[in-house]
Amino acid sequence: MPILEVNDLHIYYGMIHALRGISFTVEQGEIVTLLGANGAGKSTTLRAISGLIPKTEGEIIFEGEELGKIPAHQIVGRGLSQVPEGRRIFATLSVEENLLLGAYLRKNKKEIRKDLHYVYKLFPRLLERKNQRGGNLSGGEQQMLAMGRGLISRPKLLLLDEPSMGLAPILVREIFNTIREINQQGTTVLLVEQNAALALDLADRAYVLETGEVSVEGDAKTLAQDSRIRRAYLGA
Amino acid sequence: MEWYALLIQQVINGLALGSVYSLIALGYTMVYGIIKLINFAHGEIYMLGAYFGFYAITVWKLHLAPALIISMALASLLGIVLERIAYKPLRNAPRIAALITAIGASLFLQSAAQFTFGANFKPFPQVIPFKRIALGPAYITNRQLIMFGVALILMVVLHIIVQYTRVGRAMRAVSLDKEAAMLMGINVDRIISFTFALGSSLAAAGGILVGMYYNRIDPYMGMMPGLKGFTAAVLGGIGVIPGAVIGGLIMGTAENLVVAFGSSTFRDAVAFAILILVLLLKPGGLLGKSENEKV
Questions:
Q1: CATH code of residue A211
Q2: ipTM of predicted assembly, 2 dp
């Protein structure tokens, strides 16, 4: 059984038909990426999965449970956490407070401490800056903080929305290496990315969205060689 | 009285009264911080808090401290109910709709209080025997000390809740970014309710303290302090918690100094003069963020 199954998902923003019946699955332990141009519906898909926008039609099934009627704040407790586009750090809160908010629903203080250490080990720079305001961090550090905040809820499935956005290439590589590390430690990842080359290199499988529909899907390594993909997204 | 003795005396009076303005301003500023609404019914919560305290003392024969706690608890509930009924349905409506609703809620609560408790003022029971304590060339009364002390304790408790507890962290997160807060698993509705409860309880405490200070309560007593608390919040920078405290103390002091050295005719005018000056010169308030906010 896939950990996440999206079936024929339709979303309307008012009169605009943003998602026109997309379907995809994410298997336990995989990294799956959703590719596509601006406005193709990638972020909309993630927002719908996290319950931030209502779906019009279709199914979102996480570990066998339909998420459609569940309010957004209850979804993270089921083991599905999202690192949103633009990071959305709580700017006036300290780095550590941001991380603790990621663990908001968890009760066991000792376990939270342990996971705080895990995040600090994953991103040592956050430890150096743990008492600084989140808003004072650089873009790369904020991305690390957003990922740490997403991880500290101990998700089974981590949704990452454009983690490379606005970052220098060297930082992007660092972030992507960390995503691989997180995945190897057992967290399933659904990645939305504009940088198709990097995403295809990292992912097991990929879906390409075009104007609210899945246009191409398949094994990431195969798609990276696909001439249509290369022309449209890899600039080759 | 020498002029400096008068000055010291008025500063003492001003800080005591100002501490209550601070309590009221905190409710305005917290609610604004979290849902960007000026809750104009806040002054009526303050008034009802005074009535709850009045009945707790006269009917249940309680002393000041338990009456204070009961009144704060009832006002919290009232704040939660007010938000649920009047403001929550308008969460996604234009802001002006919620603002008008707040004014409506204020008038409704005032009329309801007049209907229930009568339009005449009630003498607030004298639970604390009056005492005057010499303080240099001036005096401070034990009631002023209680007023200032209770306000100070409540502010410290509030500070601890907001800065060092899980729910306080959630409040700050919700005020910054509701969607990101939801992704953390925070129940935004519940945090908004909690904020109303907290702000309302502080207003109720203020109502009792002022009832005790002036020896009387009436259904319209919330109007002026409500507006002054609002002005104090704007003066300090709306949405900024320390700003509300400072704003309240300045308002109280300014008011008393104007009465002492000017004329008591201007007692209430000074508040609005301050409001106009702040809006003209430093719209963000003393501790506010400088960027202009869309209203």
A1: 3.40.50.300
A2: 0.94
